[in-house]
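Show me any protein, keeping tokens residue-aligned.
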Amino acid sequence: MWFRPEGRFFLCGKSPEAGESRFAADLHAIDHAFFESEVWPRLALRVPAFESVKVVGAWAGYYDYNTLDQNAVIGPHPQLGNLYFANGFLGHGAQQGAAAGRAVAELIVHGSFQTIDLARLGYGRIAEGRPAAERNVI
């Protein structure tokens, strides 16, 4: 289960358990019961203030990922000037998107990462077949 602030609200969700599929052919058929039974109880357990939250909106969608290591690809393309990657998050986009956006903005404005060095997530590892392992997958 994960959550993060988004303006006056929070975004939240839960990754499927091993062997569980949450694939839906119809993205307009949102499973609202999933929040009630799977997400909300975990939110309230982790942060008691969430016991009184209510859903104000929901969405469903597919997400992209890279098949090499299931981590984001962030940074400039090594051969095509003015092309920057911020994709392949494997569902981590809602969690890591704000930081990735800042990192890419720093690359564009300053020519290098300023706040946090994300060079190890660059496209070079994809081209070289060199996975960036993540120890804490949710």
Remarks:
- The CA atoms of residues 63 and 91 lie 6 Å apart.
- The radius of gyration is 17 Å.
- Residues 93-110 form the longest helix (18 residues).
